[in-house]
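Journal club side-thread
Mid-discussion, someone asked how the predicted structure for our own chain would compare to the paper's figures. Pasting it here so we can look after the session.
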Amino acid sequence: MINKLIEKIRKTNAPIVVGLDPMLNYIPEHIKEKAFQEYGETLEGAAEAVWQYNKGIVDAVYDLIPAVKPQIAMYEQFGIPGLQAYKKTIDYCKEKDLVVIGDIKRGDIGSTSAAYAVGHLGKVQVGSRKWAGFDEDFATVNPYLGSDGVKPFIEVCKEENKGLFILVKTSNPSSGEFQDRIIEGRPLYEWVGEKVAQWGEEHMGKEYSYIGAVVGATYPEMGKILRKIMPKTFILVPGYGAQGGKGADLVHFFNEDGLGAIVNSSRGIIAAYKQEAYASFGELNYADASRKAVEDMIADISGALENR
């Protein structure tokens, strides 16, 4: 799947991923009103609003981008109906030939880790048949429990030709409480990055490993170091836009071939119509505002890469 992701990045010239992280207060009133008329102010009504909102955004931007990244927590908050909306979103994005990165941040061991891996990336045995559960193309994984938590995912990825993005240095302000701790003369995130590169050697695509890393856009200097530690690792870069990252901060995440990173923006795109720069689109044209935000993000990152 890393080969497909790279192929689509080259085709679109857009090393970006749209984070489909819906909150009810992002969703325009006309979408919520229609959903609530049909299902009431219920979990089912909220899930329907989320699904219709996502569909509008995907329809507006799928031709510009290689991938989407739905964050499962935003769906889980609406219970089983929310998870059904999550699955409908995944299936619809795959119909549009988008690569789907399931932002699930799982981290456990043994049979539990294997069950997470099977449920999201693999197939579960039911009697004489096998069924895909959520069926994302990539998943995010928390490596805090060590190899015991990651290797079950890698095994499923090998079976299914799918991939991972493993948390190395996250974009949130308090990430340094643990990730920046010095261990034997080096910060913890460097040790984790080194381990990710080792895991990746076991599962290589044509140019890059199927085992990627998550490194926040808000820490460009650390990104420069980690790029050297993980030369064949694709880096998923959160923190663009709403969290303060911008194109000029991101050049160090990319290799000289212009590849090696994919940058995520979530509310900066899906709730673009709420921003002053795109307010003229209005609620009814929220998806058009999202498309313009994607175009502006592509231009920002492309310009930064050209001028580095």
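Post-session note: The chain has a mean pLDDT of 94.
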